[in-house]
Amino acid sequence: MTAPLHEAHPSSPGRRLPDTQQGMRRRNLARVMHTVSAEGPLSRAAVASRIGLTRAAVSTLVDELIRSGLLEELGPERPGRVGRPGSALAVSGRGPAGIGAEIGVDHLAVSAVDLRGGVRARAVRHGTNRGRAPGPVLTELTALVERVVAEAEREGLWPAGLAVAVPGLVARDARTVVRAPNLDWHHVDLGTLLPAGLPLTVDNEANFGSLAELWLGDSTPRDFLHVSAEIGIGGAVVVDGRLLRGTHGFAGELGHVPVRPEGPECACGGRGCLEQYAGEEAVLRAAGLTPGEDRVDMLAERAAQGDKDVCRALHDAGTALGVALTGAVNLLDPEAVVLGGALAALAPWLLPSLERELARRTAGPPCAVTVSRLGSEGPLLGAAHSVVRAVLDDPAAIAERG
Amino acid sequence: MTAPLHEAHPSSPGRRLPDTQQGMRRRNLARVMHTVSAEGPLSRAAVASRIGLTRAAVSTLVDELIRSGLLEELGPERPGRVGRPGSALAVSGRGPAGIGAEIGVDHLAVSAVDLRGGVRARAVRHGTNRGRAPGPVLTELTALVERVVAEAEREGLWPAGLAVAVPGLVARDARTVVRAPNLDWHHVDLGTLLPAGLPLTVDNEANFGSLAELWLGDSTPRDFLHVSAEIGIGGAVVVDGRLLRGTHGFAGELGHVPVRPEGPECACGGRGCLEQYAGEEAVLRAAGLTPGEDRVDMLAERAAQGDKDVCRALHDAGTALGVALTGAVNLLDPEAVVLGGALAALAPWLLPSLERELARRTAGPPCAVTVSRLGSEGPLLGAAHSVVRAVLDDPAAIAERG
User: Fold this and answer.
1) Pairs of CB atoms within 8 A across A/B
2) Count of domains in chain B?
3) Same domain, A192 and A233
4) Nearest to B363 among A24, A247, A256 (CB)
5) Whether the Cβ atoms of residue A5 and residue A13 lie closer than 8 Å to each other
6) Which of residues 85-124 of A touch B (CB under 8 A)?
7) Interface test with chain A among B361, B362, B370, by most A beta carbons within 10 Å
8) What's the half-sphere exposure (Cβ side, CA atoms, 13 Å) at B323?
9) A27 touches chain B (CB under 8 A)
10) What is the residue-wise DSSP string for B286-319?
């Protein structure tokens, strides 16, 4: 079993390299990259003081990173500072880029993100994928990937890897979609159906959404529970800055937590699962509406107009979320619950009942519930950034590939 | 926030020491200790080959550990082996010992465990602590600790630390009992009430029980959910060989997961919590029995005799456990659920309904449910061993103290 992503925070390396001089060098290269990435532009002296190595040691590491095209020198720092002016270092805006892709129930999307976190190319195709065979969908996705890669290459970037977000459970091989009920895909190995030559990572959309929140969110804590919804309800657990994956890679399945043990039957085989009360289709049904495209926009619009049925349906969904989250909060004691994906857009109408339920059921200090700023952009951003983070986490690997 | 325990598996250091030569030396001392502890007696050459260092490097580390009294040489190995006979190394049976203590609702217990894991002294006092003030209880516990320490000292051991298991929530300072409802203790700082001079760690009994399971259980996986019951229901989550603590140190609270959202009111402020269906008192009530001492033995005895009311009450408790565990298994995707504490003794009558509920509600591969061999001994063993593990995890700290 391998951890497919380098999801660790800089201060807690996710993958332990061996305790040798060589391992130490690799880890120190990563510390330089993360420091410049988080705080740059910085002089060599500033990097040295921040990571607690000598200036000479840092210079050797920096030279190696410049040779690999991962760092660049911006030229002498402005005069007026104390001491001899050093050349400021910045993460390269050329060189490796992360290619993120998303297979949604209603769309496909691809984007290229450079090492500085800038989105440099993007392509989207709307249209339902529900019930379509994997082959044609992945052929379309491949075309979008090729278009985005070509655009990125014109800007001096090269793709360091491809990460694909899917609305389903992914095996720990980080390639195989075990079950994506809303696509009706079962045991599909994406590795054989996507462009060869690019290192590939496939993961659940909720996992990528939570990583985006961790990396890009506004003061996201290092221990949180991420809850999102598209058609289904997704969850992801981040502990000490790392995504909890579980034995089979299935951790975070919040949608099938029993809310009412004798409630309506669920496609999963259980009864009264959260998805039966707070999934998009359940909410639409409860509001007397017909599922279609742009469901979330429609719900948010009607709720904003004060549509009683929609508001009541969202209130009840919030209550169900509160019951399911009580169990999760009791079990994990996270610093916050973050509502992402479609739940972010619907938060104004979900939060009151959700928070009330959570507060009255948890004896301990109340757990903060916050709303993601990234919303439904989270999974695609998380996918592209996961490739970028892998480069920052082990820059030596790029040098070896180059 | 500090992690009060060195709960890590040898291969994944829980506390990251800095990436310096000095940090590397400390980690390598720990690797030698863990290797000899797990596989000894071993020659220096065997240790070197197992941890991938040169024989000279290992000899330096071993000499330091012998000087600190943590390793001992057993004399030349038996002839008949290939090569020049080396002296076999073993973990010392003298030197530091872990002192574990347990504050139960109905008893106090203390034991001393040497670095080899042998229980070398033990003292127990029966009698209820429910509703007693912390002062007198801790005075009695101190007397037991002193008796056990004196006995250990007569055998050439010295106490490296004291770890106390309590039936309640403990703050992340690893000293303060925030809430122990079945003792009726609130915000009690045990640090001021226990013998000074001994490094102290206080933790929830379910946490220590799960660590005992991890360290001493029969092929316990590295990802599991531990569920135990005394008066309340305790839970603990172990991920990748490490105990998940949560933001406030309260993770693992399975007893207040809502099983039936509109069920009976619970002391926690919620409704229909698991404890209302599967806690010892709930089971006794459902079986028409009066709570008293030796409740678990009585339940097990009557169930074994085929008492219909008791069997039905345990069957229903198993169902409630199955519902609550479905949510937890969906969220964490553990390799196994381990029933510990009193649940181990009652497992034959809980398991059928528990497993049925779990199987019908979880869509993924069924999660194994196993029964702890340690049963209600778990928390005390886990406490004493946590001190021993801290010595193995950072033997240099002992040398510095000595």
Assistant:
1) 151
2) 3
3) no
4) A256
5) no
6) none
7) B361
8) 29
9) yes
10) HTT----SSHHHHHHHHHHTT-HHHHHHHHHHHH
* Contact check, Cβ <8 Å, B248/A365: yes
| pLDDT > 70 in chain B, percent | 92
Which residues of chain B are within 8 Å of residue A19 when distances are taken between CB atoms? 24, 27-28
Mutate to test the interface with A, among B28, B242, B247, B268 (most CBs of A within 10 A): B247
Q: Which residues contact A212 (CB under 8 A, 6 or more apart)?
A: A374, A377, A378, A379, A381, A382, A385
Write the pLDDT tens digit of every residue in B106-123. 899 999 999 999 999 999
Residue in chain B nearest A327 by alpha carbon: B257
Residues of A whose CB is below 8 A from B268: 361-363
Encoded tokens for A199: 């290192």
- Pairing mode, if any, of strands A71-76 and A87-91? antiparallel
Q: How far is CA B233 from the centre of its chain?
A: 15
Which ipTM was obtained for this model? Answer: 0.86
- Given its phi and psi angles, is residue B240 left (phi above 0), alpha (psi -120 to 50 degrees) or beta? left
User: Are B311 and B367 members of one domain?
Assistant: yes
State whether residue A296 sits within 8 Å of chain B by CB: no
pLDDT-wise least confident of A246-260, A354-368, B98-112: A354-368
Given A235, A248, A335, which is nearest B331 (Cβ)? A235
Q: Does A251 touch chain B (CB under 8 A)?
A: yes
Quote the CA–CA distance of A219 and B238 in Å, as a whole number. Answer: 27
User: Is residue B3 in some structural domain?
Assistant: no
pLDDT, tens digit (0-9, with 9 covering 90-100), for A115-140: 999 999 999 999 999 989 999 999 99
Q: Chain B contact for A192, CB < 8 A?
A: no
Tell me, yes or no, whether A228 and A369 share the same domain.
yes
CATH of the domain at A237: 3.30.420.40
Looking up residue B50, the CATH number of its domain turns out to be 1.10.10.10
**Taking a C-beta distance cutoff of 8 angstroms, is the pair B91, B155 a contact?**
no
Q: Which residue of A has its CA nearest to B357?
A: A270
A74 phi/psi in degrees, rounded to 5: -90, 5
Residue A90: inside a domain: no
The number of helices, as runs of H, and strands, as runs of E, in chain B is 12, 15
In sequence order, which residues have a C-beta less than 8 Å from that of residue B359 and are 6 or more positions away? Answer: B366
Same domain, B206 and B281: no
Q: Would you call B363 and A254 a contact, using CB atoms and an 8 Å cutoff? A: no
* Containing structural domain, residue B76: 21-91
Amino acid at A314: L
- B254 touching A, CB under 8 A? yes
Nearest partner of A349 among A262, A290, A286, judged by Cα? A286
Mutation target vs A (from B26, B58, B257, B329; most A CBs, 10 A cutoff)? B257
Using an 8 Å CB-CB cutoff, list chain B residues near A335.
Answer: 247
User: Is A393 inside any structural domain?
Assistant: no
Q: Is A27 a member of any domain? A: no
pLDDT value at position B366?
A: 81
Asked whether residue B201 falls in the same domain as residue B277, the answer is: no
Residues A245 and A340 in one domain: yes
Please indicate, yes or no, whether residues B368 and B246 belong to a single structural domain of this protein: yes
Average pLDDT, chain A: 88
